[in-house]
Design goal:
The protein is mainly alpha-helical and 440 residues long. The protein contains 16 helices and no strands. The protein has helices at residues 19-30, 34-46, 50-73, 81-89, 91-121, 130-149, 159-177, 183-186, 197-204, 224-253, 264-308, 327-343, 346-374, 377-382, 391-405, 409-439. The longest helix is centred in the middle third of the chain and has 45 residues, at 264-308. 52% of the residues are buried.
Length: 440
């Protein structure tokens, strides 16, 4: 059921991604703008309990990661969540999940572009004005759109470099900052007081999402049924521990009165002066830049693939005659992301991206029982089967549903409009296919 046959295009892809390549893919997808933007925003509501909130939410979210690890272990084909939903519930859900993934990547791009503007503003007052913010977001989005229309080289040759440039400064920040951690900051006394726990947790989830796209690369991964689950779980666990230490250093160094405006740049400045601030700023720019480039590369290909399957109008599947790129899909991605980035702020966009992803997670988790049941004997023997039957996926489902319930009405209105656009395009594509069939 889930094997690639020799005649399929997926079987012709080179499986050059090994364990470390898969781990770097997860790491780059998860560590983007979230950890650079969220510590202060979470600390406003959670105070000294922020590090523990990051860790506890990460532990609960591991149930979702483990569920995706098992889902990935049934497939050696490219597609990830779209395949899971399509195999379990049919093409409508397959399309819906694909569209949700596109929306989540597009809104995340818009959110991260705002964070990049914020970090660049910390370098100089020249970048701190409102017109400068508009110019930075516009230039970055337009530049990446232009680059992806004019051609993208195969592979992820700069991925390892970007990983080092983003992770090493964070490790240095932790190493320098741990000396400021006291017993009172590590284990704060008194009653646990966290304002707006649901909303704060929903925002915090933004730091952990992105891992789900690793399944999309299964067709290019060496032994994907074993490599992807192990890389997925280990990388997310280590990322959660890194987040805990970063936020612990943040609340140990930054005064409570400054939580609302402080970023990791302020932590770097407090620990190592202007040099520390510059290093963290550059780390943020490299991290966010790599994340933005990855989103602009991957997200348009999702709607391009949906159009190739006839689930979106053929216009989205057009390929540039000269550059051989899905230029229309890239333009749509760039245009929508730029509009959202300029009209909203990071928190609004991050919550919107999290809500959209969580809906997709619910669909994929619900697909697991059918995928287990319909898998052939060979697939079952190779699968990364979770212990306890549906216990862990059940916890994952409850976690996702609880988080979705923390969203506000305005979040749902924004998501509904974007979902309605996708469903209208899907209906238009189906209508045209029916018309062609009637004429034949």
């Amino acid at each position: 059921m889930h094997e690639s046959s020799p005649g399929q295009g997926a079987a012709q892809l080179r499986r050059d991604i090994g364990f470390f390549g898969a781990a770097f893919l997860v790491l780059n997808s998860v560590i983007g703008a979230g950890i650079f933007a969220l510590p202060g925003k979470v600390a406003i509501n959670a105070g000294l309990y922020s590090p523990w909130l990051f860790l506890i939410v990460g532990i609960l979210f591991i149930s979702v990661v483990l569920t995706f690890a098992e889902l990935a272990s049934y497939y050696d084909q490219t597609g990830g969540p779209v395949l899971y939903a399509n195999d379990a519930f049919g093409p409508v859900f397959g399309f819906g999940t694909g569209w949700l993934i596109f929306l989540s990547r597009m809104t995340a791009f818009a959110a991260n572009a705002n964070v990049m503007a914020t970090y660049l503003a910390s370098l100089s007052d020249v970048f701190a004005s409102a017109p400068a913010r508009v110019a930075i977001i516009t230039i970055v989005t337009a530049g990446l759109t232009w680059a992806n229309i004019h051609g993208v080289k195969d592979g992820v040759r700069t991925m390892s470099v970007l990983t080092v440039l983003k992770v090493v400064p964070l490790l240095l920040l932790v190493a320098l900052g741990l000396q400021h951690v006291t017993g009172a900051t590590l284990l704060p006394g008194g009653d646990i007081a966290i304002e707006n726990l649901g909303g704060t947790t929903l925002l915090l989830i933004y730091a952990y999402v992105g891992f789900e796209t690793i399944g999309v690369t299964a067709g290019e991964t060496n032994q994907p049924r074993r490599t992807i689950p192990v890389a997925l779980v280990r990388t997310v666990v280590l990322t959660g521990l890194l987040y805990f230490l970063i936020v612990l250093v943040f609340v140990s160094v930054v005064p409570a009165d400054n939580y609302a405006t402080a970023t990791l740049v302020d932590v770097g400045r407090a620990l190592a002066g202007s040099a520390g601030a510059l290093v963290i700023t550059l780390a943020a720019v490299f991290s966010i830049g790599g994340n933005l480039a990855g989103s602009m590369l991957a997200a348009p290909r999702i709607i391009f693939a949906l159009a190739e399957k006839g689930q979106l109008p053929a216009w989205f599947a057009r390929i540039h005659e000269r550059h051989s790129t899905p230029h229309n899909a890239v333009l749509v991605m760039g245009g929508m992301a730029l509009t959202l980035a300029l009209s909203s702020n990071f928190v609004t966009l991050a919550v919107g991206s999290a809500v959209v992803r969580l809906i997709g997670f619910v669909i994929c988790i619900a697909a697991l029982p059918r995928i287990r049941r319909n898998a052939d004997t060979a697939a079952r023997e190779k699968a990364f089967r979770l212990p306890g039957g549906m216990l862990i996926p059940g916890i994952a489902m409850l976690v996702c549903i609880w988080l979705v319930m923390q969203s506000r009405l305005e979040d749902w209105l924004r998501v509904s409009v974007l979902l309605a656009i996708g469903l209208a395009l899907y209906a238009a594509a189906n209508y045209r296919q029916i018309q062609r069939s009637d004429k034949q």
